Amino acid sequence: MDELVAGVRKLVCDTFLLDPATVRPDTPLEELGLDSKGRIRLLATVEVFYEVSIDLDERDRLTDVNAVAQVLAEALEKKPGETAAS
């Protein structure tokens, strides 16, 4: 899970041009300037980067980096397994 948290933290910093020193795993996304539209953008970015599908209704759960990582972990568990041939 720590690896997912670190990946999500980097994605948040890169996507919203934030200083990594200001983004802790428990910093509320609202404090970082992410409103509901920002959370939707983050959700879309996570989906593309990790090649998962996350229901738009999950955006309300995206309260901080830890929560985003948790939603991502759940989506990764539901992701169909990749075969060796792919």
UniProtKB/TrEMBL annotation:
InterPro entries: ACP-like_sf, PP-bd_ACP. Transmembrane segments: none annotated. Residues 1-76 form the Carrier domain. It holds the Pfam family PP-binding. This is Acyl carrier protein. It comes from Amycolatopsis bartoniae. The lineage of its organism: Bacteria, Bacillati, Actinomycetota, Actinomycetes, Pseudonocardiales.
